[in-house]
Design goal:
OB fold (Dihydrolipoamide Acetyltransferase, E2P)
């Protein structure tokens, strides 16, 4: 069935078109809610997963830059201004993206995202989102609030 005719082939009445538009808006709103639920859930997993492996030594990349695994393992040590490097594992254009550690990505690619043990960092970013599987350097601020941790990017560059 196309959107200009009903099941019998008759043209849609204005009320039918309104119903279709409303259904489309509901589907889009649901998709956006699910995407942010994924980002928030990923950050919750980061915090839980970080406690189990908190004994690992921190890996620094460029001077002052932290990896996804390091930030996820001990987020309280990195509150405030952060330089972060990781691989883009999920994107929600205009709202943000999720990073995984470069080593995790090298081991299993994007399939790691579905694994609970994989550390992930959701990044809020309203600019043009990087592409999936790009390695990026993110300058931003990690804040603690009543709702939990939030990482807001101020600058994103492709490596």
């Amino acid at each position: 069935m196309n959107q200009t005719a009903n099941a019998t082939g008759a043209p849609l009445a204005p009320a039918d078109e309104t119903v279709l538009k409303t259904q489309h808006k509901v589907r889009m709103a649901t998709r956006n809610k699910w995407a942010w639920a994924l980002l928030v859930g990923a950050f919750a997993l980061v915090i839980d997963g970080g406690n189990a492996l908190g004994q690992q030594p921190q890996q620094q990349t460029k001077a002052g830059t932290v990896t996804v695994n390091d930030l996820a393992s001990k987020p309280d040590e990195h509150l405030g201004q952060v330089q972060l490097v990781g691989v883009v594992a999920a994107v929600l254009q205009g709202e943000g993206f999720v990073l995984v550690d470069k080593r995790e990505y090298a081991d299993c690619g994007l399939s790691c995202l579905a694994e609970p043990a994989t550390k992930k960092v959701p990044v809020r970013w309203s600019g043009d989102a990087p592409k999936l599987e790009q390695t990026v350097h993110v300058a931003g601020v990690l804040n603690q609030s009543a709702k939990g941790l939030s990482f807001v990017a101020q600058e994103v560059s492709i490596q």
